[in-house]
Amino acid sequence: MQTDRLITIGAIIAAVVALAALSERWFRSQERRLEARYRGDFAAAKTRFRVVRRVVVVVVILFGTLSALTTIPATGDIASALLASSAVAAVIAGFALRTPLGNVAAGIQLAFTQPFRLGDRIAAHGLAGVVEEIKLSYTVLRTDDGRRAYLPNEQLITTPIVNATIEDPTRAETATLPVAPDADLAAAAALLLAIAHAVPSRVAEPAPTVRVAEVTPQAVLMAVTVWVADGTAAAEAGSSLRAEGAGRLHAAGMLARPVDGG
């Protein structure tokens, strides 16, 4: 009997993992198809799509866990009651009002009310940058110096947010490149700025900028920011900045060398 129960639990866990993985894979494929065929601004649809995808995966795991618990005598009655009644919705709603699951409810609210979208440039909590990802519990903000700030969603629906992009499709793309500490920083900045000005999808305003993001004994990290026409062009612009910047810095003898770990 104990062996049969363990086999059943194992089978349920395997099914839940497989179903969650298939759901994630299906949603990702649908997102790529939509992005390829979408003719308008895809940022709004993409923001909602990603949050819904994560909610579906979480729900699959939740119900799978409850199903596994029904096979255990100590928890079977409770799990069966939750699965067989509307108590599941009540439990989820009750927990969603509390931290940390309150962040999940806030993430869903952000996805559909959309005070900001993926790729938008915002300022909140004293930080400014581009929205890189909206996850179930927090939002990832890529700041101008190349760092990533993780802001709890619950805080973002209760604090003022300045969105510099919501009515404008242009996006800021930042690439961070390592310059040798003994290099001429002014020359390196001029070189990177020239590369930024040559980005094909760049818009005229705002103008590209080059800033010193961080100084270490091994390298001076220089952040190059360029504004491009839309979110689709942002990834291509970032790749171009990194590839062209690294190549030109290397040719000029100004690219920082990797530290020898040996």
Task: Provide a compact summary of the structure.
With 262 residues, this protein is of the alpha+beta class. The protein has helices at 2-37, 42-69, 73-84, 87-96, 101-113, 153-156, 185-197, 231-251; strands at 121-124, 127-134, 138-143, 148-152, 162-163, 171-179, 209-215, 220-228. The chain has three domains: 2-85, no CATH class; 121-163, Roll (SH3 type barrels), CATH 2.30.30.60; 171-251, 2-Layer Sandwich (Alpha-Beta Plaits), CATH 3.30.70.100.
Account of the protein in words:
The chain is α+β, with helices and mostly antiparallel strands and 262 residues long. It is built from 8 helices and 8 strands. It folds into 3 domains: 2-85, no CATH class; 121-163, SH3 type barrels, CATH 2.30.30.60; 171-251, 2-Layer Sandwich (Alpha-Beta Plaits), CATH 3.30.70. The protein has helices at residues 2-37, 42-69, 73-84, 87-96, 101-113, 153-156, 185-197, 231-251; strands spanning 121-124, 127-134, 138-143, 148-152, 162-163, 171-179, 209-215, 220-228. The strands form 2 sheets. The chain has a 5-stranded antiparallel beta sheet with strand order 4-3-2-1-5. Strands 6-8-7 form a 3-stranded antiparallel beta sheet, covered by helices on one side. Helix 1 (2-37) runs antiparallel to helix 2 (42-69), helix 2 (42-69) crosses helix 3 (73-84) and helix 2 (42-69) runs antiparallel to helix 5. The longest helix has 36 residues, at 2-37. The chain is elongated.
